[in-house]
Amino acid sequence: MIGKHIEEILKENEETFIVPADNVATLLYTHPLEHALLILSTVGYAKIPVLDTDDRLIGLVSLANIVEKMMGLTGFDYGLLSNLTVADVMEVNVPTVQHSEDLEDILHLLVDASFLPVVDEQQIFRGIITRKEILKSVNHLVHEVEKRYTLEPKVAIKNK
Amino acid sequence: MIGKHIEEILKENEETFIVPADNVATLLYTHPLEHALLILSTVGYAKIPVLDTDDRLIGLVSLANIVEKMMGLTGFDYGLLSNLTVADVMEVNVPTVQHSEDLEDILHLLVDASFLPVVDEQQIFRGIITRKEILKSVNHLVHEVEKRYTLEPKVAIKNK
């Protein structure tokens, strides 16, 4: 469990944890891969969320997912992408969170994921929590703790 | 400044902060972009270091840097990559660090960079420090602080 004072400081920027859905580039699972390649190469993110037509999150797709599909037996072939859609290459069953309050889970999941999609109970995509935003809070934390508190060891040091 | 007890706990995993150069996929600036595309799409990282023939770090290259170059006036054209090398698309003047001890700098720089190349005085590439490894230490930190220490507020709370 995260200590309560520590959690308090980490959460002082909680309102900025989530990049809202409106500010996140996404793709529909029905989009052709040519379109996906265009979006991904211009958007500045290596991986973005994939939605269905009801705004439900159904996966993530990366530039690497698409470029791999261009790899033919004798080299890359852009033609291999025709007739394929995002649904053919996306990663599914990706970890998500429902609230920015679940800091314990968020910090653990971000060890392996560069961002976490936030969804509601109906799996509607609400935004993302990025390592970038969490690292801003971590910077705040490590600078603030000992400005605000004196840290008293809980166990007496025996050999000193 | 990072508090001294906080820094102590964060650094307990310091030996794992740096992924050593031998375990990091890299490219030479002279490599053709077709080769770079192959490496980047198979390696699992969206961006990797670019070295010269003396192992000096000279830049970073991402899948997006290369895919952008394939964008022609009428759509993507793989042929646009021929005769281009990594040097033609890499990002230069990227932030680097020299030691895993510079935690203050590392934590700040990782807000905007997904990893930091580590170089020595001669700019020889020694490895990378990733957000992933730092987030492992952050998890350790937020769970340990209040197990080990009682946090006493430094200023009396006036209005209770």
TrEMBL record, chains A, B:
<feature type="domain" description="CBS">
    <location>
        <begin position="90"/>
        <end position="145"/>
    </location>
</feature>
<keyword id="KW-0129">CBS domain</keyword>
<protein>
    <submittedName>
        <fullName>Cyclic-di-AMP-binding protein CbpB</fullName>
    </submittedName>
</protein>
<dbReference type="InterPro" id="IPR000644">
    <property type="entry name" value="CBS_dom"/>
</dbReference>
<feature type="domain" description="CBS">
    <location>
        <begin position="18"/>
        <end position="78"/>
    </location>
</feature>
<dbReference type="InterPro" id="IPR051257">
    <property type="entry name" value="Diverse_CBS-Domain"/>
</dbReference>
<dbReference type="Pfam" id="PF00571">
    <property type="entry name" value="CBS"/>
</dbReference>
<dbReference type="InterPro" id="IPR046342">
    <property type="entry name" value="CBS_dom_sf"/>
</dbReference>
<dbReference type="InterPro" id="IPR048125">
    <property type="entry name" value="CBS_CbpB"/>
</dbReference>
